[in-house]
Amino acid sequence: MSEADWRAAGDRVETLIAASAAGGAVARERAEELVRLVADLYGAGLERLLDIAHEHGALTDDVLAALAGDDLVASLLLVHGLHPYSAETRIEQALADVRPSLGSHGGDVELLEVSADGVVRLRMPGSRDGCQSSAANLRLTVQDAIEAAAPEVTAIEVEEPAATPRPGSVIPVSALFSRIADGAGSDAVAS
Question: What is the DSSP letter of 82?
Fold first, then answer.
């Protein structure tokens, strides 16, 4: 089954559950229960498969990386709480993947924390420089990458970088006015 096929199958499941509502609340509840039971059965099978592979020494780091790198398998592992990598590890990898794109626009991103309740805190130095639409695009790129890697995230908070003071004039304007005032005062006395 290709990626397009399994994504279409997921969309079709949602459509069928929504359509079952036409049969009333009981029909919808039964359809949702059926999907839940089938998902639980497949989840138990996946867990058992991983356990058997581990018991036989076949669940190596390379195999885990391959499973985690496959979109379909990784999403199934996530649904069933079986993903081999923590949310923080997956987010770090997703950010590493988007850093080159951010850097080409003068931005960067730093993961500060993933809280126990699923809140991701980031710092995005350089993302405020330049135009607002570019900064918004950078944030959207980061948000999309995080949500794809860790759908269990409940919120993404971006810590605003401290404002960097702009370099001032070589000679403060107030000093220029004080020189003029001093000069005017000495001319008035000499007259």
Answer: -
Query: How far apart are the C-alpha atoms of 65 and 62, rounded to whole Å?
Result: 5
CA angle in degrees (0–180, nearest 5) for 107-113-119:
100
**Strand order across the 119-123 sheet:** 110-114, 119-123, 155-159
Structure tokens at 113: 């924390």
Measure Cα distances from 11 to 15, 111, 173 in Å: 6, 32, 65
Do the beta carbons of residue 122 and residue 137 sit within 8 Å?
Answer: no
Quick one: CATH architecture of 87-159?
Answer: 2-Layer Sandwich (3.30)
User: What does DSSP assign to residue 32?
Assistant: H
Sequence ranges of the domains in the chain = 3-79, 87-159
Stated pTM of the model: 0.67
10-residue mean pLDDT profile of the chain (191 residues): values are 82 89 90 92 94 95 92 90 94 94 86 95 75 78 93 91 57 56 52 46
